[in-house]
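Researcher: Checking consistency across runs. Here is Monovalent cation:proton antiporter family protein again:
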Amino acid sequence: MEGHTSVTSLIIVLIAAFITPIILKRLKLNIIPVVVAEIIVGLIIGKSGFDIVEPDPWITILSTLGFIFLMFLSGVEIDFSVFKSNNKKKQMNGQKQPNSFFVASIVFGLILLVSYLISFGLELAGLVDNVFFMTLVISTISLGVVVPTLKEAEIMKTGIGQIILIVAVLADLVTMILLAVFVSFHEEGGNTWLLLLLFAAGVLLYFGGKFFRNRPFFESLSTGTVQIETRAIFALLMVLVGLSESLGAENILGAFLAGVLVSLLSPKKEIVEQLDSFGYGFLIPIFFVMVGVDLDIWALFQDKTVILLIPLLLIGLLASKLLPALVLKRWYDWKTVLGSGFILTSTLSLVVAAAEIGQRIGVINNTMASALILLAVIACIITPILFKKVFPFKEVKSTRKTVKVVGANQLTLPLTNELDKNEFEVCLFHTKKSENIDSEVDRSRFRVIGINDFSLEEMEKNDIFNTDVLVISTNNDERNYEIAKHAQELGNDHIVTRIESPALSKQLKEYNINVFSSFFSTKAMMKAMVQSPHVADIFTTAEEGLIEIEMHNRDYHQVELRRFPFLGDAIIVRIYRDNESIIPHGDTEVKFGDRLIVTGSDESIQELRDMLG
């Protein structure tokens, strides 16, 4: 009977996790983070609601693994390229753009200071017992809420977006480390110096992973049923979690460190997507549903101190982020400053972690732990809404993409004239020594911007890396490789580079950089002409080619292709949806955000673009 109850409870939790995003979608409540909704659903089926879930070993183990995996993915989520100094001389309202890392560091330092002052005041009022612990709770910021919100608002790559992102990353790193140090100091027999062993082990594992990841032997084990990279990541996670517990630290610190190491090793995009799918599709929802299940709101509000504490802490959370955000007023308007403060108030994962740990080591009681979790849920609901209400989004965004081409030759010079001027704004850069340009090309027909040389410093000086698409085609493979890698480290996500060397080409492809080779492209085209001449004809016809059109018209969302009012002579040859490649048929439904690969006359393609854009 006990086993039956155990399985029943687990099934209830899994079903609750399954239906939660469906309910959000149907009710159009996309403004609420899914993890917050999972906690609310847990409240409904748990102690605060119908109380139909009974704790058992299965749920406890899966929930713990979900917690560990959440901290692991928090580490993986950190993009360390944001810490690189950005010296681009952008102008904004006649003023130089601030150094993102420097300003973010000041803001986060002030967040810690204000959080400490608020915690000290709460201790004087007799509402909290430990100032340091409460400082960590108040200063946390949720990357899991900040990153999706910035992406949705399309401000991730802007100056203010980078500042907000770096503040959130610093908060994630620093508060996690300080929490581990606090636990080590607080627990009997704890030794902070042992944490150095954990970090030393992390450094050794990082260099070991860096040494082995590109070895041909391991690459041969990355396909089929072996998937050696995925096995290595899970082995790394469990080794550091086990080592963390053995050294008297929290297991989540080991999990977080494992995620950081994976992020530093720049895993393939497919691997990260698999990890996200496994974590957010299975383990992590169980953890958040169980957080809600274990919360007893009715018992919580029987304590008058808690009723007073929650609004005070909410005000404290807002003050700890809004006051430091005033630093941004030097460069931005009031709406931008207030909006930044609101989104930085979003906090969830680390507050839940701190509440669980604080309760275990006796710093707070069960009531206070529940109050902190409820506070995090409230903050995660209201602050993204306030951010979207206040932040001054640009109502009209330029639809033209900036394309900067490095290196003028027979391939790149015609490109500047052949790209659609309505879709792309193209700039071509070459060294001022005109003799370096192919002699066969009439340079007078093209506008080329002269730079002193192709050094990274000269390119940054000329703001070349600040672009939507970067095309690199100098006459030196090593130089092209160096420029492409540097551009990716600066955050450019659409890079096209010319590499003739197979070895260098393979390395860049592993970093998801688009590579083309004159020799191999020509050979592939000749092969296509022999094997599939009609397919090759699409690429060689002057008037027609393959064009990508993004579907942004919600009037045609989930409309079948056969019901489209106009296609002309345009043919849709492929549809890309997220990571899915779809061969279209008449009954294929086009969805918002799809990327359609089409061919046809210029007129038909332009009409289709106007209709779907």
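Researcher: Does this match what you'd expect to see?
Model: One thing to look at in this run: The first strand starts at residue 91 and ends at 92.
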